[in-house]
Design goal:
With about 150 residues, this protein is mainly alpha-helical. It has three helices and no strands.
């Protein structure tokens, strides 16, 4: 005699439909996370691009500030030599020039750093960029005290 037995679960407590809904929600969450990540990346990259552009303008302004400070120092030294200015004015003018040079160096540093970050975010950073970075680096000039002579 032959016997056939079939076992088919008629109801498994909703586990199958619950797993299906869970998988659908996980998919939606992953998709939304990807969209959010994409938006954040685009926003931060645009912001970094604008920062690099403003760094270029800032460098030009700092360079002009050095020229102006140097001119002011020359005029103050000339005034000191003829006796219309004192040594404190000359030292203040030197201090302003050194501050302008420091600000210029910091602006260049910020530009290089932000440019490298932008290239990294855009996926364009290469070993050649890092090697090319050496051309941006300029050894600082040692500050020298301008000879101050007694007024005549």
């Amino acid at each position: 005699m032959w016997q056939v037995q079939v076992s088919v679960p008629l109801f498994s407590g909703g586990a199958i439909s619950a797993n299906r809904r869970k998988s659908a929600q996980e998919y939606n969450a992953s998709r939304e996370e990807l969209i959010n990540l994409t938006r954040n990346t685009v926003t931060s990259t645009r912001s970094l691009h604008m920062t690099v552009l403003s760094d270029v303008s800032r460098i030009a302004a700092r360079r002009q500030s050095i020229i102006s400070s140097r001119s002011s120092l020359d005029a103050t030294q000339a005034g000191y030599e003829v006796g219309t200015r004192n040594v404190v004015d000359v030292l203040n003018a030197q201090n302003i020039l050194f501050q302008a040079e420091r600000d210029y160096a910091n602006s260049r540093y910020d530009y290089v750093l932000n440019l490298m970050r932008l290239k990294e975010r855009a996926g364009l950073l290469s070993p050649e960029d890092v090697l090319r970075l050496d051309s941006f680096l300029v050894p600082p000039t040692a500050p020298t005290a301008t000879s101050v002579t007694a007024p005549k």
